[in-house]
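re: ur question from yesterday

yeah so i grabbed the chain u mentioned. its 789 aa long if i counted rite. heres the sequnce exactly as i have it in my notes:
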Amino acid sequence: MSSTHAIESNSIGNNARIHQGDVIHNYASNPGEPYVQIPFPRNEELIPRQDLMSEIDRLLPLSEDYSTAALYGLGGSGKTQIALDYAYRRCQVPTCSVFWVHADNETTFTQDFKSIAKRLGVPSNLDGEDLLMAVRYRIETSPPWVLILDNADNLRLFGVGHTAQDALNLGKHALSLDNFIPRGPRGQVLWTSRDERIAGYLVAARRAIKVSIMTLDEAKELFDSVRNKQASSDEAKDIAALLAELDWLPLAISQAAAYIKRTLTTVEEYMLKLKEGKKRWKILKQSQTDRHRRREVSNSILETWNISMKHLQIENKTSYQILHIHAFLDNQNIPLELVKQAALYSDDSDVMDHVHEAHDDDSSSDSDSDGDRTTEAIARLCDFSFLSVQATGDGNRAYKVHKLVQEAMRYGLGRKERKKEEKYFSAAALEIVSSLFPVSGPEVWNKCEKYTTHAQQACEWATLCGRELTAANLLARLSDYQYERGRWREREIADQRAYGLRKTTLGDKHLDTITSMARLAVTYHGLGRYKEAEGIKVEALALRRDILGDKHPDTIWSMANLAVTYHALGRYKEAEDIKVEVLALRQEILGEKHPDTISSMADLAVTYYELGRYKEAEGMQVKALALRWELLGEKHPDIIRSMADLAATYHALGRYKEAEDIMVEALALRREILGEKHPDTIWSMASVAAIYHALGRDKEAEGITVEALALRREILGNKHPDTIASMASIAAIYHALGRYKEAENIKVEVLALRQEILGEKHPDTIWSMASLAATYHALGRDEDAEKLA
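ran it thru and got these structure tokens back, copy pasting raw so excuse formatting
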């Protein structure tokens, strides 16, 4: 089976289940030792801005109450450094936990919450929304605590400014990260943002502090500190003028002082370069319209960057290349390997030769090895305050580039005469991440996670560099990883982007475009959005029939996948008709013993099961299992699937002991091979619980069902049909245990959810009506029971 087909044909098990119920995660634990997670070292050379620091202390005192505040202002004004100082001062309180979260986007937010989860001992089986909520609750129950939310520049992530159109653009399953911000007692939350709307939306207007320019004395102190030299009386006037020209912005001052120190340039010489350059930036910014560049970046910062970069261009070609490639990647958590690859990157173009053609004295070429060259280049970038070390929590080295440095580089590359460079560096970023991002699997999940945000950012520039298909292929691998981790919202975004790129580049009827359609449909199916999945699958099937013909394997695969969705929609007869046709075609074209033919037998048996034709289902399942044993070996996932299907049929036939033996074995094998959180493993858990329920072992069934429900909520979400099935199962167990009121409450919720998601006429909805009627009858509410019946 090809990897494409394996992905397209992923489906959630549809065998009969008892219906399982609700569970409340208990995330609270006894307060223990304080935890500190801050990704940056303390800035020992910070210039105190006493008025701002005093105001933060006033707004966020250590008290019994919850409090929040925000620092907002221009990029480069020093917000993060002020927040970092506050975080480290709170660390001096022996009992206080301090956490730092990058709030740039949903992925960085989630990654930092995962790191916090490890430190706090949150259960390792949690992911997705459950993990985010678990971290929130765990922080809230461990006072006192401080949370820094840095670079919250996109306030829409936190629900600010959402309109109906925004909701449509973001997708109806988009999430407001504001739901996961801790708000417990004895806690303080400090935001940093460039968006002044944070005042009045995420924090009260009176609790928002505008971070403006430095005072003259503060600016002078910072300049002398970075330059590591006390200003002489002769320089005082020139330095004051330079600081004014730099708009008294800390980032611009630091970069200017670093350059002057590194190159032994005089303040007067630097001033002349700065003034001339700022005029050019003003003209350039007025002419640029690219959506990625139209950000408010100070001309002072742009030119301080430009002066330093021109020097690097002469002095160290490798530093120049590293930094420009990273203009098109994420600015946080840059792994050392990514820096190394950027240092070594080269294609067959003459772009870099042209950039450096006037400079044959590249000092980096004298290095003894690639490693020495990279190390030297990193040191130069740190000298010029372009790159800084960032803690990762796993002992590995990572780096950070200031957002404004990235934006400044992209502004610079926007000049007409630098279009070749822009294309070269954006293409390099995409190709490097593509080479580092592995084909997913549990053994490389950590590596995938390390490069996820960089892959997302690099793919944003696919059209700019003409690498749409490279990006589409990378997004497909990213999608596979997100599927395995149960991150459905992110996977949907990756699939939609890949489909859009292929559709634009290759056209509607290219086979790769159709494959992307089919992948997106599988994602919708996995999200429980069966009607959306159906529409796309019908279209993909029509296209494949038109282009490939009725008997091409890809066409047959589309038929099989459409049947899976019909089955999920409760349209068993339509599913049966297609599955019978698919089986006949595969027997004709591929033969009786081809794995795809055997899969069709097994799929058809599942539908026979749902139609109550258990003996027919059993016969096909026994045959499919025997063929798979012969072809695939003992521990292949398809063999385990056949075992589980057969056990479910034995259950339906009342052969409970045989069902139990096989299903327990299938569950053990799935745990070993697929892991605890794979949907098939959870399905086996639910099935084991169903058998225990049938055997009257309801207390055992309850424990397993509660665990299965928790896992499904984590992996699939609260409104996925399989999660709702687990809720129904726990209600059935409560009914059997005589806990009728609890059973009623859950069954009412289950019925409402099924009516909303599956519709009034879906078999599961009708089953819920009958089940609720039975509980009403047990409660002596015969009139209510009769209405439902």
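noticed a couple things. The first strand starts at residue 36 and ends at 37. also Residues 216-248+250-424 form one domain.
anyway ttyl
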